Amino acid sequence: MPVKNQYSELLKMSSPCEKLIRRDIARTYPEHEFFKGQDSLGQEVLFNVMKAYSLVDREVGYCQGSAFIVGLLLMQMPEEEAFCVFVRLMQEYRLRELFKPSMAELGLCIYQFEYMLQEQLPDLNTHFRSQSFHTSMYASSWFLTLFLTTFPLPVATRVFDIFMYEGLEIVFRVGLALLQVNQAELMQLDMEGMSQYFQRVIPHQFDSCPDKLVLKAYQVKYNPKKMKRLEKEYAAMKSKEMEEQIEIKRLRTENRLLKQRIETLEKGQVTRAQEAEENYVIKRELAVVRQQCSSAAEDLQKAQSTIRQLQEQQENPRLTEDFVSHLETELEQSKLRETETLGALREMQDKVLDMEKRNSSLPDENNVAQLQEELKALKVREGQAVASTRELKLQLQELSDTWQAHLARGGRWKESPRKVVLGELQDELMSVRLREAQALAEGRELRQRVVELETQDHIHRNLLNRVEAERAALQEKLQYLAAQNKGLQTQLSESRRKQAEAECKSKEEVMAVRLREADSMAAVAEMRQRIAELEIQREEGRIQGQLNHSDSSQYIRELKDQIEELKAEVRLLKGPPPFEDPLAFDGLSLARHLDEDSLPSSDEELLGVGVGAALQDALYPLSPRDARFFHHLERPAKDSEGSSDSDPDELAAPYSQGLDN
């Protein structure tokens, strides 16, 4: 398979399912020698195959149960071949659909198995239903692991061979065969007993004779056409369920929106109820004002009738002109007060109409404040009306006193006894009417006071309820803010801790990098110094060897003179003492002075230039005879290739090349 070439590359990649695979590996064939023990070879190769497949098929990834199939393959073949076989099984044997996250194929297999159970073993199916023992409780592992977790390996491998030849049909056959063999025992057990029976008894019934299980399985009736029809029915049922789920989701969304709308309306209802309550209070106050106005109008009418009666009695000589003018003045004042009261009543009616129009829409806080101001104005007018009523009562009292004083003056002895009796009766009637008007005014005043007290009590109760609701809301908000503040404080402390850890880690990394750089620089400098020392030693040894083979003492003396001159020139140019021990030439010492700038920056530069070239560039040019001498030194170096000292000669070659240049 082409995927076999990708296996090694897949193992180098990381998979998001690695933790799940590691967790389940220890539970895969725990008693088998190949997989026993943590970090064993079997567990490692099983992890590799499962990880590689999770990267090849990212839709499936990793599913519990598939590790048993891969483990059985690893018992028979290397991991690359096991990986390829597992990929082919997943693609062509319906296993991929079984292991998908939705497990739609597993639901189809359970549906088909239930139909076969109902058709071939109806009594057992009825018993399962009565005990609420669902098919998925015992048959899911059969389809997902192909009986590898149910039977011992000899029986499970026999079933797996038939599966690789025929497909999932053998799982249906073996499952129904097991139920047919154990029908009588299962009919006598309850749900818990059946679960124990499936786990302990059924797996070991065919350990000694797997062929018997295979024969029983192939005696089961299996109709492929009927299975195809069941597959279509299951697909139609699932599509219908999907449509119902979509409809349920839509209805839930609509329900949520309706709940939100209801909550909004309830909030509006609360506001409307508050406004209705305030309107009710205002209407009650308006009714009280109207009642006061009506009582004042009645009092005025009675006063006017009294005045008319007094005017009719003006023919009586007892009434003087001053008294009549006084009564007319009082009448005019009463009419003026009545006019003012009627004007105030009309103004109140206009205000009520305006308030009713504005009440049709929900008022905001500004309108409520305006209504409260108008209510205060109404209370002021009410107080004025009460004050005018009291003034009217005082005026009636004055009229009554005046009338009584007039009657007390006498003068009736000049009239006839009949007129005297009639006048007395009229006086008594007037007194009774005055007392009645006074009593009615006092009763209305008391009723008005009671209404005012009830209204104030109602207003105070509503105000207390609102204050209590606001207090509870503020307390809840305070608790919420305190919890939120606590969470923010926790997050802040955590972020600070992480920041401090990151800063410490970064500082440690910077210090480590700097230490490594310093160590590397020191090592490089030490290596360069060591290479320079070795090169100088090789050059000095070579020159010494050449000088030892020379027989010309005169030539040696001239060379020593030149060396002394070179040493003096070097002292003048460099100044500091030599860093290396001087080399002796028959009692003479040669010292080389080098600073850090004259050292090569790398090994390549050191080998390419050489110490001799550096000295020649820094000092005076050599004479032709000296040049011939150094050419003579170069020839033995070329002739000595292949000898035991070949390495020093090769390293000294750049020195002679520098002299030639």
TrEMBL record:
Biased composition (Basic and acidic residues): 631-641
GO MF terms held by the record: GTPase activator activity; small GTPase binding
PROSITE patterns per UniProt: TBC_RABGAP (PS50086)
Keywords: Coiled coil, Phosphoprotein
Coiled coil feature spans: 227-268, 436-576
A Pfam family matched in the record: RabGAP-TBC
Domain Rab-GAP TBC: start-end pairs: 1-167
SMART domains referenced in this protein's UniProt entry, alphabetically: TBC (SM00164)
Sequence segments annotated as region (Disordered): 631-661
PANTHER family: ECOTROPIC VIRAL INTEGRATION SITE 5 LIKE, RAB GTPASE-ACTIVATING PROTEIN 1-LIKE
This protein's name: Ecotropic viral integration site 5 like
Organism: Aotus nancymaae (Ma's night monkey)
Lineage: Eukaryota, Metazoa, Chordata, Craniata, Vertebrata
